[in-house]
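Much of our argument rests on the idea that a fold can be written as discrete symbols. In the encoding step, the backbone of a single protein was reduced to a row of integers, each denoting a local shape. This step matters because it turns folding into a mapping between discrete strings. For completeness, the protein is quoted in full, as a sequence line and a line of structure tokens:
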Amino acid sequence: MKDTVRKWMCLDPIDMDHFEGWLEAMAQKGLFFERPWALGIVFRRGKPAHVRYRLDPAGNLWSRENRDYCRTLGWEYAGSLVQYFDLYVNFDPEAPELHTDPVVQSYALEQVAKRAKRTCILLTTLTLVMLAVVLLPFFLFSTPILTWLVESPTSGNLLVILLDLLSTAMTVQAYRSFFRLRRRLEEGLPPRRDGSWRSAVHFQRVLTWIVLSLTVLYAAVLVVTTSRAWEGQLDGLSKPVPTLSLTELEDDPALEPLVDGRWTDGQDRNNYVSFACTLVAPAQYEIIQKLTDGRDYEPRLTTRWYRLSLPFLASPLLDELVYQHTQHYYSPDDYDVEELTLSGFDRAVLATDTHWPGQRLFLQKGNVVVYLSYSGNQDLTSRPELLEELISFQG
């Protein structure tokens, strides 16, 4: 059996009385502080014993003479922890405390308190900056749901925001405990030795496991959403896709696919489908179809199909699509927009081009939202059976 054991530091030393209580509990299990390491504490195995550990501001008892004096009182220098503290240990239960006057001890912690306040201010500032960087686009985008939630692989970094808040909460809790202890010392009251460190450890462990779980979830979301994306030409496609057939809509045997042969991979980008997956919209299709009669008529149809994991976002998403494709990039008189009543649909909005033959149709049924952009002589609403088949696609 190894003489040493490495354990994760489940409490920040700035949470002084709780950290001391945790070290003392480890000693009762036969694990004695040896030295810190990158992620925690190295403990030395030994016979279980009731010992006392005390933290003191780094620099207060730095000289050999002072350490020798403390040794005569039974307090041995054990090592340094982070930038704030030196650690002392006492194996004699009858020896006096390292600090016998709470008020004097509070004065000794004044410099630590100043540095801790600066750290808290810096941490709060960085957290606010982080939240601003992540959240501001949501308020600045003209279509925040579409851009920030639906089409973002990580759904607007919602997990990043949560991770940041939880990590900050863990640190703030530790510093809050320090300032609470210092106020108690200023009032002349000694630190509590009531085993409350267990609650602090439990709180930090719960938050840590939540943070770790969310980190794993965040990585998994990135891997899954990236790996599920695919694309390909419609001709010869073996996978089912939610398509409103442009050939059926036109119903003209003289029309045939307008093939785009410019690509070196041989793919026809004029008749093409791409699939994407995000946390908020686990199924997203963009389907492009173009036909030609070989002369001057070339109808085309672009379909964007979304299935949302949060149904309450469906109607707002439709509104954003209407705004983006009829107002944001266009003049107010480019489209005549009207809300339709179509049987079998929760919402339907038709935008008719006022300058050229064409329509834009926006549909919503349950958690499915569809946007159709059509250039041609037909009427998208004339084939309700095709629209019903399109929006009812299950995949």
Q: What stands out?
A: The CA atoms of residues 358 and 375 lie 4 Å apart. The chain has a mean pLDDT of 86. Residues 230-391 form a domain with the Protein Transport Mog1p; Chain A fold (CATH 3.40.1000).
